[in-house]
Write a structure and sequence with these properties.
By secondary structure, this protein is mostly helical. It contains five helices and no strands.
Length: about 140
């Protein structure tokens, strides 16, 4: 959402139904790319790769598909985001949200998501082994 909100703010575009549809499409792309990345990491883990290596290799293997998705959407909607002709008032907010949001999605999916995955997995592993400061048994469900 950050890229879409920043784009609306920078361009002075008001939030509208059209921009809301743009945010919905962004959520779909984010979820799809995130699921693809996590499934790649899980597959590498099942093949016996250590956690850190699986996360790094998974992000490396999924970099091209994530960047191609981002560039295709950004390049395809760039003309709509700067259009000034008849009817552009309805398509411009959607296109601006998608272009701005999709350009930040690559960073989020390739850098932030693997970092969060690694940190969460390590935290859950410490809890499962009982070596962390958080001891299981307080009604928490831990499923790794």
């Amino acid at each position: 959402m950050t890229g879409g909100v920043l784009t609306l703010f920078i361009t002075g575009t008001h939030y509208s139904i059209s921009s809301a549809v743009g945010f919905l499409s962004l959520f779909g792309v984010y979820v799809l790319d995130g699921v693809i990345l996590i499934s790649q990491i899980k597959q590498l883990r099942q093949e016996g790769a250590p956690l850190r290596e699986a996360v790094e290799r998974g992000a490396e293997l999924r970099m091209r598909p994530v960047l191609m998705t981002a560039l295709a959407a950004a390049i395809g909607l760039l003309p709509g985001s700067v259009a000034t002709g008849i009817g552009s008032e309805t398509q411009r907010p959607l296109a601006r949200v998608v272009v701005g949001g999709i350009l930040t999605s690559a960073t989020v999916i390739l850098l932030v998501l693997p970092t969060i995955y690694l940190a969460a997995h390590q935290w859950l592993e410490r809890r499962r082994l009982g070596t962390g400061s958080d001891q299981p048994g307080r009604g928490d469900v831990v499923n790794v």
